[in-house]
Every structure is written in C-alpha cells, then in structure tokens.
Give the backbone structure.
Amino acid sequence: MRVLKILCPECGHNAIVSKSHRIDPKLSTLYCQCRNVECGHTYTLALGFGHTISPSALTNNRLVKYLADHLSPADHQMVLDLLEGRVR
Ligand SMILES: [Zn+2]
C-alpha cells in the first residue's frame, strides 16, 4: 500500500500532516510540518477530490435500489423482461 508522501514546498524534505480539517466530503485542509529541522516550515495543503476512475459499487447499488423502488408496475415488468432476455 502506498502512503501519501508530502514534500515541503520550501526545501523539498519530507513533511508530516499534523492536523486535518474536513471542509466537505470532497475537500480537506491538511496542516503540514516540514521534518527538516533547519527549515521548520509549517503550511496548509488543500486535498480535493479529482474525478472518479471506477464508480463505487455502493453508488451503483443505491442507484439500482432507487430506480427499482420508483418504477411503475409496467416499467418494472419491462426491466424483468430485459433481464430475462425476452426483450431487446
Ligand atoms: Zn522544509
């Protein structure tokens, strides 16, 4: 497993995250400290969500459940027919 490696933007040495503040589910502020004793830089980094590469199975399951719960009886039957290969 890879661990996020944070480098000090001033000297390039390793830094650690001393604290994080979650702003929303897709954005956090990380409070960082440079481990180089001669530097001692403290700073923040913004850690944000980029984009989905492969969707979460949980998201797909919720979507299927939502759709199944909101289908009309006719649409429900059409989905069953599609899944059983009766309709193309
Ligand atoms: Zn530094």
Q: What stands out?
A: The beta strands are 6-7, 14-24, 27-34, 42-48.
